[in-house]
Amino acid sequence: MDKHVKCAKCGEELVIKKVVIKYFEHEFRKDVPCCPKCGQPYISYEFAKGKVREAEMELEDK
Amino acid sequence: MGWKKMFGRKKLPPFPRDFWLEEMEQARDDAAALIVPPEYQGRLKYLFFPGCQLGASDPRYPQAVYQLLLRAEPATAMWLSCCGAPSYWVGEIEQYRSVQAEQHQQWESLGRPQVVLACMSCKKIIDYVLPDIQPLTVYEVLADSGLQLPLYPQLPELALADPCMSRDEPQVRQAVCTLLERMQVPYQILHQDIHTLPCCGFGGNIEGPNLAAAQAAAQRRISSEERPILAYCVNCRDVFAGAGKQSLHIIDLLTGLNGLERPTPHLSLRRDNRRLAKALALGGEKEEFLGISLEISEETARMMDESLLSADHIRRLIARAEQSGDYFIDEQQIHIARLPLCGVTIWAEYRPLGGRQYQLISVYFHRMEVEKTDEAAGK
To answer: What is the spatial distance between Cα B290 and Cα A29, in angstroms, rounded to a whole number?
Structure first.
């Protein structure tokens, strides 16, 4: 993780956890930083603009 | 329609399409206003309808034009709203019919005054769906008036770019030319054939789904033209200014509001501009959406324009995050929060400045849905 980010609600440092990522009828699991208590996933700017965008474009072209 | 099936089957992401519908709804909702001079209630001659983009481009435009019209005819009202074109352009025909029905009802309730438009898209739509309204343009009304107009013999020669929606409307071009001649503006018509006027790239709101196609259309229209452009469609003016061209709207000449160098207004800040246009028309203060005041840098606003994100989306995101406490925070005390919206998730990084004031640091979005699992939630 590039940034030192905490969950404001729980006050917890984020840890890497598996989350479900869905796009149209596609679904897969991916390691993403999450709050260990409430489970909220954090998608950083770099991740959204990089790997997530690449995957979206690949699926949109199918 | 093909695209409707594609959205319905979830083969296309919905966000760019919904952006324009939201723009329309905002123009018809919190940016809408009807100003009727009390002494002419029930016996109006004109109803000025600037359209949703005039005040979005420059918040001073609607009121400035209204003042001109009042000088020509005091029995004139102004109605800030939207004609429904964005819903037509995305194929939401029922919604579009409903907007038009409301418009017709309002016109009837005001005693069927002569409708006066500033936008040729409004004119095409109203002529097509509500033919009994028979609208005129502000250019025709002003050309027929004996108003004294400012003179500009010293201007460089301008290239008059008729909007595509002026196709087969020679009387509107004629009125614009009359006004230019009365103001002694040196000009030449850019595209003579009124039946084949090309589009600047704004029409159909293609900018969302295909920004490159919209930009290419603008370049085709002006790339070989060395003279500054003069438009009488505010969308054309803004598109040409955005393509780096010196551009004027004829309203700038009629009112003296802007010079050739005005940049294109940010798409992301147009809802704020509409609210300011309303405040200027009503003589009140601009209200901030959700009471949230945002500082947005040029660079961030440009980023939002490209992603079709409005400052109002960010206000909704911040209101939700700050109310629920559901956000992340980094070591610099920057808050990072998300908002699901029309099939995408928007993220914003922002710094609280005290009260309801925030500085927006960055914005991004993804279309994929990210769901926490039981494992991620620590169950």
So the answer is: 36
Chain B residue closest to A24 (CA)?
A: B10
Q: Residue B378: is its pLDDT beyond 80?
A: no
Contacting residues of A for B362, CB less than 8 Å apart: 45
- More confident position, B11 or B212: B212
Burial B356-377 (b: 16+ CB within 10 A, else e): bebebbbbbbbbbbbebeeebb
Strand order in the sheet with A26-34: A26-34, A15-23, B369-372
Among A20, A36, A43, select the one facing B366 at the smallest CB separation.
A43
**Do residues A6 and A36 touch, judged by C-beta distance below 8 A?**
no
**Does the residue A3 lie in any domain?**
no
Q: Are the CB atoms for B334 and B363 separated by under 8 Å? A: no
Tell me: ipTM over 0.90: yes
Residue B12 pLDDT: 61
Residue-range domains of chain B with CATH: 2-272 (no CATH), 289-366 (3.30.2310)
Separation of alpha carbons B3 and B7, rounded Å:
6
